[in-house]
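Entry type: protein chain
Record version: 2
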Amino acid sequence: MKTKIALITGGSRGLGKNMALHLAENGHDVIITYHTNKEAAFEVVATIEKLGLKAAALQLNVNQISSLNQFIVDVTTVLKEKWHTATFDFLINNAGVGATIPYLDATEADFDRLMNIHFKSVYFLTQKALPIMNDNGRIINISSGTTRFCNPGYSIYASMKGAIETFTRYVAKEVGPRGITANVIAPGPIETDFNNAAIRSNSQLKERLSTMTALGRVGEANDIGGIVAFLCSNEGYWINGQRIEASGGISL
Protein backbone atom coordinates (compact mmCIF):
# COMPACT_ATOMS: atom_id res chain seq x y z
CA MET A 1 0.00 0.00 0.00
CA LYS A 2 1.35 3.41 -1.00
CA THR A 3 2.39 5.61 1.92
CA LYS A 4 0.22 8.71 2.19
CA ILE A 5 1.41 12.18 3.14
CA ALA A 6 -0.17 14.49 5.71
CA LEU A 7 0.36 18.24 6.03
CA ILE A 8 -0.23 19.52 9.56
CA THR A 9 -0.02 23.20 10.40
CA GLY A 10 1.34 23.94 13.86
CA GLY A 11 2.96 20.55 14.31
CA SER A 12 5.95 21.34 16.51
CA ARG A 13 4.19 20.94 19.86
CA GLY A 14 0.94 20.13 21.65
CA LEU A 15 -1.95 18.78 19.63
CA GLY A 16 -0.20 19.13 16.27
CA LYS A 17 2.83 17.16 17.42
CA ASN A 18 0.62 14.42 18.78
CA MET A 19 -1.36 14.29 15.54
CA ALA A 20 1.88 13.96 13.56
CA LEU A 21 3.12 11.10 15.74
CA HIS A 22 -0.19 9.24 15.59
CA LEU A 23 -0.32 9.54 11.81
CA ALA A 24 3.28 8.30 11.57
CA GLU A 25 2.46 5.35 13.82
CA ASN A 26 -0.31 4.54 11.33
CA GLY A 27 2.25 4.45 8.54
CA HIS A 28 1.87 7.93 7.05
CA ASP A 29 4.57 10.42 6.14
CA VAL A 30 4.18 13.91 7.55
CA ILE A 31 4.98 17.54 6.74
CA ILE A 32 4.56 19.83 9.75
CA THR A 33 4.80 23.58 10.06
CA TYR A 34 6.19 25.73 12.83
CA HIS A 35 6.04 29.45 13.49
CA THR A 36 9.19 30.18 15.53
CA ASN A 37 10.24 26.95 17.26
CA LYS A 38 12.33 25.36 14.51
CA GLU A 39 14.29 23.16 16.92
CA ALA A 40 11.15 21.55 18.35
CA ALA A 41 9.77 20.99 14.85
CA PHE A 42 12.89 19.18 13.72
CA GLU A 43 12.77 17.03 16.85
CA VAL A 44 9.34 15.87 15.72
CA VAL A 45 10.76 15.17 12.27
CA ALA A 46 13.59 13.14 13.79
CA THR A 47 11.16 11.11 15.90
CA ILE A 48 9.08 10.24 12.83
CA GLU A 49 12.17 9.33 10.82
CA LYS A 50 13.21 6.91 13.58
CA LEU A 51 9.99 5.06 12.82
CA GLY A 52 11.28 4.52 9.29
CA LEU A 53 9.02 7.12 7.70
CA LYS A 54 9.67 10.43 5.97
CA ALA A 55 8.97 13.83 7.47
CA ALA A 56 9.74 17.50 6.89
CA ALA A 57 9.20 20.81 8.69
CA LEU A 58 8.41 24.14 7.03
CA GLN A 59 8.08 27.62 8.53
CA LEU A 60 4.64 29.23 8.34
CA ASN A 61 3.12 32.26 10.01
CA VAL A 62 -0.64 31.89 9.57
CA ASN A 63 -1.14 35.48 10.67
CA GLN A 64 0.44 36.60 7.37
CA ILE A 65 -2.09 35.69 4.70
CA SER A 66 0.20 37.09 2.02
CA SER A 67 2.72 34.32 2.77
CA LEU A 68 0.38 31.47 1.80
CA ASN A 69 1.28 31.48 -1.90
CA GLN A 70 4.97 31.11 -1.08
CA PHE A 71 4.15 28.41 1.46
CA ILE A 72 2.40 26.35 -1.23
CA VAL A 73 5.54 26.75 -3.35
CA ASP A 74 7.59 25.50 -0.39
CA VAL A 75 5.29 22.51 0.06
CA THR A 76 5.51 21.68 -3.64
CA THR A 77 9.30 21.91 -3.50
CA VAL A 78 9.68 19.60 -0.50
CA LEU A 79 7.23 17.11 -2.02
CA LYS A 80 9.33 16.98 -5.16
CA GLU A 81 12.69 16.82 -3.39
CA LYS A 82 11.84 14.39 -0.60
CA TRP A 83 8.97 12.34 -2.01
CA HIS A 84 9.44 12.73 -5.77
CA THR A 85 5.79 13.61 -6.11
CA ALA A 86 3.70 16.75 -6.61
CA THR A 87 0.77 15.98 -4.33
CA PHE A 88 -0.20 15.04 -0.78
CA ASP A 89 -3.22 13.42 0.86
CA PHE A 90 -4.30 14.89 4.20
CA LEU A 91 -4.57 18.54 5.26
CA ILE A 92 -4.92 19.17 8.99
CA ASN A 93 -5.47 22.86 9.79
CA ASN A 94 -4.31 22.91 13.40
CA ALA A 95 -2.15 26.03 13.87
CA GLY A 96 -3.60 28.51 16.33
CA VAL A 97 -3.12 30.66 19.39
CA GLY A 98 -5.11 31.13 22.56
CA ALA A 99 -6.28 34.47 23.87
CA THR A 100 -8.57 35.24 26.79
CA ILE A 101 -9.95 38.68 25.99
CA PRO A 102 -13.05 40.00 27.80
CA TYR A 103 -15.57 41.21 25.24
CA LEU A 104 -15.56 44.82 26.51
CA ASP A 105 -11.77 44.91 26.25
CA ALA A 106 -11.55 43.43 22.74
CA THR A 107 -9.96 45.61 20.08
CA GLU A 108 -10.13 45.58 16.31
CA ALA A 109 -6.48 44.49 16.27
CA ASP A 110 -7.33 41.50 18.48
CA PHE A 111 -10.21 40.61 16.18
CA ASP A 112 -8.13 40.87 13.00
CA ARG A 113 -5.27 38.80 14.41
CA LEU A 114 -7.49 35.97 15.57
CA MET A 115 -9.50 36.10 12.36
CA ASN A 116 -6.31 35.75 10.30
CA ILE A 117 -4.95 32.90 12.38
CA HIS A 118 -8.10 30.89 13.03
CA PHE A 119 -10.31 31.53 10.02
CA LYS A 120 -8.89 33.47 7.08
CA SER A 121 -5.67 31.46 6.87
CA VAL A 122 -7.59 28.17 7.08
CA TYR A 123 -10.03 29.30 4.41
CA PHE A 124 -7.39 30.33 1.91
CA LEU A 125 -4.73 27.74 2.72
CA THR A 126 -7.31 25.04 2.08
CA GLN A 127 -8.28 26.70 -1.21
CA LYS A 128 -4.65 26.95 -2.32
CA ALA A 129 -3.80 23.43 -1.17
CA LEU A 130 -6.64 21.62 -2.92
CA PRO A 131 -4.98 21.66 -6.38
CA ILE A 132 -2.04 19.70 -4.95
CA MET A 133 -4.15 17.29 -2.88
CA ASN A 134 -4.87 13.81 -4.13
CA ASP A 135 -8.43 12.67 -4.67
CA ASN A 136 -9.91 10.63 -1.79
CA GLY A 137 -7.95 12.68 0.71
CA ARG A 138 -8.97 14.27 4.00
CA ILE A 139 -9.35 17.81 5.32
CA ILE A 140 -9.53 18.13 9.09
CA ASN A 141 -10.07 21.48 10.77
CA ILE A 142 -9.72 22.15 14.48
CA SER A 143 -12.49 24.01 16.26
CA SER A 144 -13.29 24.26 19.96
CA GLY A 145 -15.84 23.16 22.52
CA THR A 146 -16.42 26.88 23.11
CA THR A 147 -18.62 27.02 20.01
CA ARG A 148 -21.16 24.96 22.00
CA PHE A 149 -20.66 26.26 25.55
CA CYS A 150 -19.53 29.74 26.56
CA ASN A 151 -16.24 30.51 28.27
CA PRO A 152 -15.88 34.20 29.23
CA GLY A 153 -13.11 35.90 27.29
CA TYR A 154 -13.44 33.68 24.24
CA SER A 155 -15.92 35.69 22.20
CA ILE A 156 -13.48 36.35 19.34
CA TYR A 157 -11.82 32.94 19.41
CA ALA A 158 -15.08 31.01 19.54
CA SER A 159 -16.65 33.16 16.82
CA MET A 160 -13.80 32.31 14.46
CA LYS A 161 -14.09 28.64 15.33
CA GLY A 162 -17.82 28.82 14.66
CA ALA A 163 -16.99 30.17 11.22
CA ILE A 164 -14.64 27.23 10.70
CA GLU A 165 -17.44 24.80 11.46
CA THR A 166 -19.71 26.36 8.83
CA PHE A 167 -16.84 26.58 6.34
CA THR A 168 -16.03 22.90 6.80
CA ARG A 169 -19.52 21.81 5.82
CA TYR A 170 -19.30 23.87 2.66
CA VAL A 171 -15.90 22.42 1.81
CA ALA A 172 -17.22 18.89 2.32
CA LYS A 173 -20.04 19.62 -0.11
CA GLU A 174 -17.87 21.26 -2.76
CA VAL A 175 -14.94 18.80 -2.77
CA GLY A 176 -17.09 15.69 -2.33
CA PRO A 177 -17.01 14.88 -6.06
CA ARG A 178 -13.26 14.31 -5.66
CA GLY A 179 -13.79 11.86 -2.83
CA ILE A 180 -12.20 14.24 -0.32
CA THR A 181 -13.88 14.45 3.08
CA ALA A 182 -13.84 17.46 5.41
CA ASN A 183 -14.54 17.32 9.13
CA VAL A 184 -14.08 19.37 12.29
CA ILE A 185 -12.64 18.16 15.57
CA ALA A 186 -13.69 20.35 18.51
CA PRO A 187 -11.53 19.66 21.59
CA GLY A 188 -12.65 20.60 25.05
CA PRO A 189 -10.13 21.87 27.63
CA ILE A 190 -6.72 20.34 26.91
CA GLU A 191 -3.71 20.48 29.22
CA THR A 192 -0.97 21.73 26.89
CA ASP A 193 1.00 24.96 26.65
CA PHE A 194 -1.83 26.49 24.58
CA ASN A 195 -2.92 29.97 25.70
CA ASN A 196 0.18 30.32 27.85
CA ALA A 197 -0.48 26.93 29.48
CA ALA A 198 -3.61 28.38 31.10
CA ILE A 199 -4.87 25.01 32.35
CA ARG A 200 -1.54 23.45 33.26
CA SER A 201 -0.42 26.47 35.27
CA ASN A 202 -3.70 26.99 37.15
CA SER A 203 -4.62 24.05 39.38
CA GLN A 204 -7.93 25.63 40.43
CA LEU A 205 -9.01 26.11 36.82
CA LYS A 206 -7.94 22.56 35.98
CA GLU A 207 -9.97 21.18 38.89
CA ARG A 208 -13.05 23.23 37.97
CA LEU A 209 -12.94 22.09 34.36
CA SER A 210 -12.36 18.49 35.42
CA THR A 211 -15.53 18.48 37.51
CA MET A 212 -17.50 19.73 34.48
CA THR A 213 -16.45 16.72 32.41
CA ALA A 214 -18.24 13.38 32.54
CA LEU A 215 -14.92 11.52 32.56
CA GLY A 216 -13.65 13.64 35.44
CA ARG A 217 -10.52 15.15 33.95
CA VAL A 218 -9.32 17.65 31.36
CA GLY A 219 -8.01 16.39 28.07
CA GLU A 220 -4.47 15.59 27.02
CA ALA A 221 -2.88 15.92 23.59
CA ASN A 222 -2.98 12.15 23.24
CA ASP A 223 -6.78 12.25 23.42
CA ILE A 224 -6.93 14.11 20.11
CA GLY A 225 -4.15 12.73 17.91
CA GLY A 226 -5.75 9.32 17.60
CA ILE A 227 -9.01 10.84 16.38
CA VAL A 228 -7.15 12.58 13.56
CA ALA A 229 -5.43 9.32 12.65
CA PHE A 230 -8.78 7.52 12.61
CA LEU A 231 -10.39 10.09 10.32
CA CYS A 232 -7.43 9.68 7.96
CA SER A 233 -7.80 5.90 7.95
CA ASN A 234 -9.88 3.81 5.56
CA GLU A 235 -12.28 3.13 8.43
CA GLY A 236 -13.00 6.85 8.90
CA TYR A 237 -13.90 7.57 5.29
CA TRP A 238 -17.70 7.70 5.63
CA ILE A 239 -17.60 10.45 8.25
CA ASN A 240 -17.96 13.69 6.33
CA GLY A 241 -19.06 17.26 7.03
CA GLN A 242 -19.26 16.59 10.75
CA ARG A 243 -18.35 18.43 13.94
CA ILE A 244 -16.80 15.87 16.28
CA GLU A 245 -16.51 17.19 19.81
CA ALA A 246 -13.68 15.49 21.72
CA SER A 247 -14.14 16.82 25.24
CA GLY A 248 -14.68 13.83 27.48
CA GLY A 249 -18.29 14.93 27.81
CA ILE A 250 -18.06 18.47 29.17
CA SER A 251 -21.17 20.48 30.09
CA LEU A 252 -23.56 17.67 29.23
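Comment: The chain has a mean pLDDT of 94.
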